[in-house]
Amino acid sequence: MAERWFVGVDIGASVTKAVLLDETGNVRARACRNSGADFLAAAQDCLQRVAAGVDSVPEQLERIVATGYGRGSVQQALSRVTEITCHARGCYESFPQAITIVDIGGQDNKVIAVTAEGDRHNFKMNRKCAAGTGAFLEEIAGRLDTPLAGLSELADRATGHVELGSFCTVFAKTELLRLIAQGTPVPEIAKAAFRSVVKRIVEMDPLAGQVVMTGGVVAHHRIVVDLVSDAIGREVLVPDHAQYTGAYGAALIAREA
Amino acid sequence: MADRKEASIKKIAAIKTMRKLMAGHFYELDRAVKEGYPKIAWCTSVGPAELLRAMGFLVYFPENHGAMLGATRMATETIPAANAIGYSPDICSYLTSDIGAFVQGRTPLSDAYEGIESIPKPDVLVYNTNQCRDVQDWFAWYGHHWSRPVIGVESYRNVGEVTDVHVAGIAGQLKALVPTLESITGEKLDMDRLREAVRLSRECSDLWKAVLETAAAKPAPLTFFDSTIHMAPAVVMRGTQAAIDYYNELLPELNTRVAEGVAAVEGERQRLYWEGMPVWGRLRDLATQFLELGTAVVASTYANSWIFTALDEQEPFESMARAYTELFIVRSDPYKEAYIEEMIDTFSVDGIIFHEAKTCPNNTNCLHGMHLRLHERLGVPSIIIPGDLSDLRCYSDEQARTQIEAFVEQLDGQSRRQAMATPA
What we know:
The structure holds 2 protein chains of 2 kinds. By secondary structure, chain A is an alpha/beta fold. Chain A folds into 2 domains: 6-84 and 245-256, 2-Layer Sandwich (Nucleotidyltransferase, domain 5); 98-238, 2-Layer Sandwich (Nucleotidyltransferase, domain 5), CATH 3.30.420. Chain A has 9 helices and 10 strands. In chain A, the strands form 2 sheets. Chain A has a 5-stranded mixed beta sheet with strand order 3-2-1-4-5. The longest helix of chain A has 19 residues, at 186-204. Chain A is globular. By secondary structure, chain B is an alpha/beta fold. Chain B has one domain. Chain B is built from 18 helices and 8 strands. Chain B has helices at residues 15-35, 49-54, 62-71, 75-84, 93-104, 108-112, 134-146, 164-185, 191-213, 224-230, 232-236, 241-260, 283-292, 301-304, 316-325, 333-346, 370-378, 397-421; strands at 40-43, 58-60, 124-128, 150-153, 270-275, 295-300, 351-357, 382-387. In chain B, helix 2 links the parallel strand 1 (40-43) and strand 2. The longest helix of chain B is centred in the last third of the chain and has 25 residues, at 397-421.
């Protein structure tokens, strides 16, 4: 009898991720790519790649759960579940205890409360504003003429304490111009951008108990974890492959369905 | 998890009558403008409509027009015109969409009713600030534009218990309107006509209350989204026999649904309370989403705001004053919280959606921690959806969709756990 695969596909605003589990719940394949303008194509590509990872083809992937902004695009999905539930499920699998999850995504941030039994009992999302999200960092990297991937490396070189006070991405960019005009070193400005992200996060919620951080921003910019840890005065946990947590949670839900 | 099902909104048969009624209402106003008689009074939603009807005015409600601008999404195009002449995008989007539409020479009435070219020009504009101060500013703009008198009532706010002092204060202001109104109509106020208008208004209110209370049944025969449509006669025709006749048609239809177990939302799993203004431009989208999620929004503060059980024909001015002051929007937070608690109990509510309307802080009750206090006291979960009544620039479809879906997933999870914990 052919082995059964369980797949979670997370079509995020910026990046689409897929995770494939085997029957025992082990991760057997992962794939990601930019979501671009065609969510379905991004999802199909990721599904194809995780299927290839187990010498299979997408048609054999019977149990797929789709999540993320583009979850409605995946017609062959068994069900569609919000990324809030999927992140909660994925994080709890890695850290089976009462946790407060902070997911920093491309377009929005979420704070999700999970009980010691794994029940998601509350959540918050950022407002209709990109401040404090991955999109904000993309904007800042662009303004500093630096590749996004190198932004945290730049920030690591900062030695001072520069802050952006504005609430809003557009105003923050105006502040940035002022800093540039004043001759503030670029690493200081880069770190100020990350501080700004963290300020938006701690404004969303008191972040009680054990904090776990997930999402692409966390996966690629560990400085955000360190800054959140500094802000709350406690250690922050990060699951392996933090960018894939939503897709992983979706795959776990597919397996449990 | 929330699997989506193909779903369509169940039509309420009485809607045909309502459409005819509403057409009649607007054509009557249009005819009055063209013929110069009867006189037209503009009135805020809980302004002294009974008094105006008793004095022979046809009554036009600009907030209803604001809702139409929102529902047709014309507001999105007209608000910027009001912003451009100096009205802030942060104030009431009924006001900005309405004034913007006037500046642009547009109205959704023209699209809905052939031959109507404009909103009806008033002979007098009468406000009650129980909704907000914005209505006064709104009327002031038109009053200035057309050189028409703007008169009204300044309401109390943050009212705990409604006392005789409140009632005397508002009743006094209502009586003070009469000489100006008499000077416009050229006729003295006939107290018998006022008593009759108050009686009709009360009867309409009682029927509307009974309509909304049918949703206490499980499954609910109508939802908040239905009520935002079917409330129209209670809003624009209270104090008339036509409104009463309409609810005498609607109520039996809903009672039949209850008797036959007909659900507005097939497979109703969760029951929610909507606190705050509707998102007029997304009513259908939201109604459909909740339908797909097997979730019925069974009650709301908003639709309940046209229930005036204090109206009493024996004491017309005093009872109008009491009814307008008992309104949820002017009450203190402790009163509001007790009110919502009663609604949660009456309608078996599983969760609350607070709509944080960007341009309507007066009708937004989650800004000062009410959602937290209710959760702490009652354990009822809630979410806050940032948005607006008419300005869709303040509303993110995708974020709202995800929040609502995630909330229902959370409630479904809680229901499953409760079911597992309950011995067979």
